[in-house]
Amino acid sequence: MSQYLDRVEPEEVRFLMDFSEFKEYVTEMLGDANDLVTIDIQYDKIEDRTGATIIRPMVKLNEISTLNEEQRHLILDSGFSIDREPFDNGDYAMEQIFGPQYTIANATEDADGSFFTIEMPYRFFISQKN
């Protein structure tokens, strides 16, 4: 490592997260409720009032069969919901992974698959890791 690199502090940290990796994390978060649903990962690009593009992850949960009340509560206890908007589930999952100070900078689909580029402030990253 360069002798100078120790003296430089980055401003932000960038992650690349494949959709299949995101799906694995959601599966883990669902716990025992995982067997009750199928998971579909998508995203949407939305323009805000200022014209900036916001990328929103979507986690759509589909019931495998008709759920009883106990099974619905098992899903709700995981923090997810079948009845909520997929955006809400996507935001919840991202916040569980990265904390509240993250930004999805890009969503890319290419020959290697689909992935998100996620950024977060370096100082927040360090505080979360410790």
TrEMBL record:
This is Uncharacterized protein. It comes from Halobacillus locisalis.
